[in-house]
Amino acid sequence: KSMSEGRLKTIENELTEAKNQLMEYSKLISDTDKQIQQAEENISTKTLDLDNMKKMQEEDKETWRKQTEIHQTVDADIMKQVEVIKECQELFKNKDFVNYLKTNIQ
């Protein structure tokens, strides 16, 4: 009888140890799950950040394109004004035209 009691005690101890190990593994799995979840959240956040950066880059490109268009328009206007000024200079070099202005605009 005492031998079976000793055997029973050993089995109980082994069971307790197995239960403790199971609890440790369970905690380890739970911690790992939390780490995986955290990593997934980080990836999601990083992806969102990347998308936002791409969107901002596209907006910057669009702004730069619009600014370039405006500059080109302004440049074209300036060139037209320069042409008009040159034409006026040519006209004022013409003595007949200047005399015509002096006599008719007074």
What would your notes on this structure say?
This protein is mostly helical. It is about 95% helix and about 0% strand. The protein has helices at about 1-95, 95-105. The longest helix is centred in the middle third of the chain and has 92 residues, at about 1-95. The chain is rod-shaped, with a radius of gyration of 44 Å. The model has no long low-confidence stretch (mean pLDDT about 90).
Keywords:
106 residues; mainly alpha; 2 helices; 0% strand; rod-shaped
Task: Chart the SSEs and their pairings.
Blueprint: H1 2-93, H2 95-104
Mean pLDDT: 91
Low-confidence stretches: none
Could you spell the SSE succession in H and E letters?
Answer: HH
Radius of gyration: 44 Å
Helix vs. strand class: mainly alpha
User: Any idea what the shape is?
Assistant: rod-shaped
How much of the residues is beta strand, in percent?
A: under 5%
- Name the assembly state: single chain
